[in-house]
Amino acid sequence: MREFNEEMISFIDASPTPFHAVEWMARTLECRGFTRLAEDEKWELEEGQDYYVTRNDSSIIAFSYPPCSEKGYTIVGAHTDSPHLRLKPSPLTTVSGVKRLGVEPYGGVLLNPWFDRDLSLAGRIVYLDGEVRKETLINIDRPIAVIPSLAIHLDREANSSRTINAQSDIVPIIATGDVEFESFILSQIQDDTGELTLLAHELSFYEHQKGSFVGVESEFITSARLDNLLSCYVGLQALLETSYPMMCAFMDHEEVGSESHVGAGGTFVEETLRRIAGNDFEKLMRRSLMVSCDNAHAQHPNFPGKHESEHAPLLNQGVAIKINSNQRYATSSRTQGRFVQCARALHIPTQTFVTRSDTACGSTIGPITATRLGIETIDVGVPTLAMHSIRELAGISDAFGLYRILIHLGDY
Q1: 228: domain range?
Q2: Residue range 265-289: average pLDDT?
Q3: Contact (Cβ atoms closer than 8 angstroms) between residue 320 and residue 364
Q4: CA-CA distance, 248 to 291, in Å (whole number)?
Q5: Residue 138 lies in a domain
Q6: Alphabetically, which GO biological process terms does the record hold (predicted)?
Q7: Looking at residue 375, which CATH number applies to its domain?
Q8: How does pLDDT run across 219-245, given as a tens digit for each residue?
Q9: Which of 207, 238, 265 represents a domain boundary (last residue)?
Q10: Following CA atoms 298, 300, 303, 304 in sequence, which dihedral angle do they give, to the nearest 10 degrees?
Q11: Cβ(36)–Cβ(61) under 8 Å?
């Protein structure tokens, strides 16, 4: 379990953006014998082979072939994106003698923890090398920015009633001297030495501090992007170790609604499954199971009243099965029963998560893919504290337990 979690943290550290996460997973799959497919080419799938395909380099689907004739695929769904601060197209400004880079919040980001952190920058850029358009990933991988707090002397209400203006208060500072943004970004390209011109970018700030174990017995994991790269890692490792036909579908843009050509609301998963199944698509969907893996809200010890008392998952007490009668989660009694039966056979505890009846319930890719594919689905997740913060907290045993269940779920 310790080794599993250490490798998971290494993956998250190496994946500051969805582009980097997909690149890491693609390399891992190829090292394990998976063949890359291209969406714009004809597929000739061979029995007993493993494949993967990407879209936009930020979503990835990997699968063994063929699916089981009786039970189809166990499909592990997760998302590659996390709430963060995205660089604006023309970000550079000068205020009070410092250079700043303007940002836009991506998703439901918790803004307070972004103050006074060592921030780095990573993502994808598109540029001209002479007359040739190219694109590449960059990761500066050192602290280049900070968002300083306003001193308590200048805001006496900071500890009781402070609000944050996303336009004016959360702007990273990067320098006091002259900085030319395009030149600085292009200087990160290693391979090209000709005349370069920046055309576009998708760059994100992230906390440079690495993930780690904390607690008296090192029983917690603290890291950025646990939601939801933790689930991506768990699903990928289960795919690599299971003996049953499995698919992983890790999608971008979940944190902003999934309505994009690379999101769960798009065509990527459906088109991939149709190409695999041919005329048997409907049969495959009736026999398969989607396991939507997305972190669950653990009961916060300082705010226990925020939870439904009988359905408040605890850290290191098992995977949470997420249930909502209004279909914000796609779990049914049938899919829950199958998942719990497998967990009990492995002596792995599970918990249930239901939001308070007077609290709004979030959602996942589960209901989206269930609607689009007509596939039976269960929503599960590792209990997590500080979700959508710059650093989140989970227990060391829960991700490993989910991994073990997914390996054997095809038995049930």
Answers
A1: 2-82+224-411
A2: 97
A3: no
A4: 10
A5: yes
A6: proteolysis
A7: 3.40.630.10
A8: 999 999 999 999 999 999 999 999 999
A9: 207
A10: 60
A11: no
pLDDT of residue 327: 94
83 backbone dihedrals φ, ψ, rounded to 5°? -60, 140
3-class DSSP assignment, residue 321: strand
DSSP letter at 68? Answer: B
CA distance 400 to 23: 23
How far apart CA 48 and CA 66 sit, in angstroms, is: 7
DSSP state at residue 329: S
Q: Are residues 174 and 158 in the same domain?
A: yes
* CA triple 186-187-193, angle to 5 deg: 85
pTM of the model: 0.96
C-alpha to C-alpha distance for 292 and 119, rounded to whole angstroms:
31
Q: How far is it, in rounded angstroms, from Cα 392 to Cα 159?
A: 22
Q: How many CB atoms lie within 10 A of CB 116?
A: 9
Q: Report yes or no on 331 lying in a domain.
A: yes
pLDDT at 133 over 70: yes
**Whether residue 180 sits in one domain with residue 64:** no
- Pair of tokens at residue 214: 């904390």
- Same domain? 90 vs 172: yes
Residue 50 and residue 26 in contact, taking contact as beta carbons nearer than 8 Å: no
Cα–Cα distance, 185 to 203 (Å, whole number): 10
Tokens 């049969």 belong to: 283
Domain count, the chain: 2
With b for 16 or more beta-carbon neighbours within 10 A and e for fewer, the 258-288 pattern comes to: bebebbbbbebbeebbbebbeeebeebbebb
Task: With respect to residue 214, please indicate whether it lies within any of the assigned structural domains.
Answer: no
